[in-house]
Prior knowledge:
By secondary structure, this protein is mostly helical. It is built from three helices and no strands.
Amino acid sequence: xxxxxxxxxxxxxxxxxxxxxxxxxxxxxxxxxxxxxxxxxxxxxxxxxxxxxxxxxxxxxxxxxxxxxxxxxxxxxxxxxxxxxxxxxxxxxxxxxxxxxxxxxxxxxxxxxxxxxxxxxxxxxx
Length: 126
């Protein structure tokens, strides 16, 4: 089998034939520059995302500590009120003390739900 395509062995002849075909080979330097720019942009985007994630982690740690402090103050206040009521220093009428303690416990549970939903968010979005 013989093919109709000639196989020139001379590099100069090959380059001449490629040069005869318009837009066959374009300048590689433009492609290299645009590829380098894309890599640099992607690297900068990655750096920004990493910085953003670090800031989110620091913010969540701060809010976690603040909410833990608030919960501790509520619990210590409840224990102090119950203790003072037991000693007879404070007096409540009817169901006021149980209602007060129950409402504070409800606040604690609500804060815990907020903390778990915000700080331990398992949704991964892009």
